[in-house]
Specification:
- The chain is an alpha+beta fold and 90 residues long.
- The protein has one domain.
- Helices cover 30% and strands 24% of the residues.
- Strand 2 and strand 3 form a beta hairpin.
- The longest helix has 17 residues, at 10-26.
- The model has no long low-confidence stretch (mean pLDDT 86).
Length: 90
């Protein structure tokens, strides 16, 4: 099975790698697992906190973060964090 990361455009895969590298400077023991749909990112011994979705043709990625929405919005460093409805809570 090929991963979404390996099938992504070169630029999209590189953005994912750079994100992982930069987060790794802030979060000890960071792990990444490329799967068929996305790359999951987590700290060793904990659950995944982010999912990176790649583009096959464009130089972009989409990142879905798990966590408390007010906390994520409060700590947005200017990336434009947006919330979404959780279907389990609707």
């Amino acid at each position: 099975m090929q991963s979404a990361h390996s099938q992504a455009s070169h630029e999209s895969a590189r953005l994912c790698e750079r994100l992982f590298e930069e987060l790794g400077k802030l979060i000890p023991n960071l792990q990444r697992n490329p799967t068929k749909g996305s790359c999951g990112i987590w700290q060793s011994g904990r659950t995944r906190f982010a999912y990176v979705y790649h583009s096959k043709s464009m130089s972009q990625i989409e990142i879905w973060c798990r966590g408390d929405m007010p906390e994520l919005l409060k700590n947005d460093p200017g990336l434009g964090v947006q919330g979404r409805e959780n279907p389990r809570q609707v």
